[in-house]
Amino acid sequence: MKKKIGIILIIIFTIAIFIRAQLKFNPQVRLLASVINFSESTLKSSEYLAYNIDLKDLFTNYANSDIRYSGTASIKRIEGFPYSINGSIKGKRSLSQKKFSCNANLDVLVLEIGELDLYAKEDTVYLVAPILGGLSYGFDTGDNLFLETPNLNNDINREWFHNNKRNIYEFIQNITIEKTENTFVDEDETVAEEFKITIPEGQGGFIWELLGMNAPDHDIICSVFLDKYNHTRKLVFDLSYKTEGAYISIYGNNLSTLEMYAPLPDNEEVRATIKRDGDTIYTNSFSDSLSYYASNGDVYTLNCGMLLNYVEEGIKMEVSKIVVAKNKQTLAEGYVKGKISTDKNMGDVFENVDLSDVTIIDWDTIKNDTASFVDDVMSQARTNVDLFNLLD
To answer: What DSSP state is assigned to residue 50?
Structure first.
């Protein structure tokens, strides 16, 4: 009897060692373990970027739909102008029309000073300023300003992972997984190892179905960084097939931070991050950052905090502690509060606005001589608005 018990213990011990070795050294097993960990642990964490957010609803009914918004805004500080500017804002955005509008009625102190409007169509932004005596400019960005997000056919939740267990297992067997020497050190100093993944063309049909996308006609390259417990600390999706060097990554102990990076023409680049505040569980709280690196060496940044909540009529949003800076020197501060709702019967976003006579300014001129451009705008403002003359 003792001999049988000993044999059983040896078998159990051997199986345990084998499983441990597989979880430590077999890339396919480690990746499968990380998927299980994500569906059973990360999705439940209040630190997870999309915790308590229905991504299918967010993308389908807001990001890819016609929407209207309204609210209030305040600019507490503008360089060279020591007075707060407050106002009401309202506007529309249509992905199908590739148009955006924002109409603001502004006040300084207790005096109403007029209207300032912002429009966008395809790749061009228009500033129309009745407040400045009809001053208007257009900026051709050269980029599509109305990108479509995935039309998810299901929320990314625990149920979806359970329903696709077989698909996930077979998928992992048919992709290339290569362990590299690269590591990622998380903010809690945990070290994670990189596994470079190549998804061959034609694989992962259930994933593209989830995303509501056609399967790509090329291989997909991405990387996953796993700690010693096979907990995912970072995901990187290589977008070089669209723009060389561009990527999207999600990182953090429970994937709390989204980072987007893209190189631009003329040796410029832009980087944006969205980080969830996991300590605030009664609302969806984020810290956002946007950095633009110009070819002349200037760095423009926008930092803010954001609260986002679903209400009966749509989404209630508050963007606070907005700070716009150039080379770490603050140019303006402010906040925005408002609501966003879906509009299923939206007419022309521009309504009766005619932008055909707006002067289009070369973006290089603006970015290389921002100070002079702002001075021109302020000079025109002082000429056309009595309030500015009064404050002088």
So the answer is: T
